[in-house]
């Protein structure tokens, strides 16, 4: 069976906890992880997280949830922490209240990080400036293709992949 045919078949039969992204001819399986799995991964990497509501309910916009986070997104956070050596605090995950779309927080592709000088300098000095997003946020693309948008008081990061994990 050809590889594309296998992917098309995969798009039709998906195991629980796995989402298929893309069209049937170029579908890619994305593993979803639980909040507990994500927090364990972040804790092991020295990444912190916080929420204005001091909670993790995915359906509450004042919480920071990692429920249904894509595994490559969590791995991307680990890669960023390892590459920068900076303090990294996640302030937004998969909870409701963010912009919608295929590559959204809710669908597990994005994390928000609190800004600090170390992280900001790393992003601006290492990644390529690619212009302003539709809402005016300056954007930077990493070598692996992930997009870092400066939203003023935090970094909004779109992970297409784990960033070389």
Structure commentary:
The protein has 165 residues and is an alpha+beta fold. The protein is built from 4 helices and 10 strands, in the order H-E-E-H-E-E-H-E-E-H-E-E-E-E. It has a 7-stranded mixed β-sheet with strand order 3-5-6-10-9-8-7, covered by helices on one side. A 3-stranded antiparallel β-sheet has the order 1-2-4. Helix 2 (35-45) packs parallel to helix 3 (71-84). The chain is globular. It starts with a helix and ends in a 7-residue tail after the last strand.
Secondary-structure class: alpha+beta
Which quaternary structure do these chains form? single chain
Ranges with pLDDT <50 over ≥5 residues? 1-27
Q: What proportion of the residues form beta strands (DSSP E)?
A: 15-25%
Q: What is the number of E strands?
A: 10
Shape: globular
The N- to C-terminal Cα distance equals 29 Å
* Helix share, percent: 25-40%
Brief summary:
The chain is built from 4 helices and 10 strands.
Keywords summarizing the entry:
165 residues, alpha+beta, three-stranded antiparallel β-sheet, 10 strands, globular
């Amino acid at each position: 069976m050809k590889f594309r045919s296998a992917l098309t078949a995969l798009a039709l039969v998906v195991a629980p906890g796995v989402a298929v992204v893309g069209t049937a001819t170029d579908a890619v399986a994305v593993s979803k992880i639980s909040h507990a799995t994500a927090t364990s991964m972040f804790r092991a990497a020295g990444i912190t997280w916080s929420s204005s509501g001091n909670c993790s309910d995915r359906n509450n916009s004042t919480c920071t949830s990692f429920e249904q986070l894509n595994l490559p997104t969590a791995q991307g956070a680990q890669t960023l922490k390892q590459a920068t050596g900076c303090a990294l605090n996640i302030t937004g995950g998969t909870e409701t209240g963010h912009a919608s779309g295929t590559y959204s927080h809710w669908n597990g592709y994005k994390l928000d990080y609190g800004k600090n000088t170390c992280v900001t300098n790393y992003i601006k000095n290492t990644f390529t400036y690619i212009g302003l997003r539709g809402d005016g946020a300056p954007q930077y693309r990493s070598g692996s293709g992930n997009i870092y948008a400066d939203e003023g008081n935090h970094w909004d990061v779109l992970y297409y992949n784990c960033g070389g994990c």
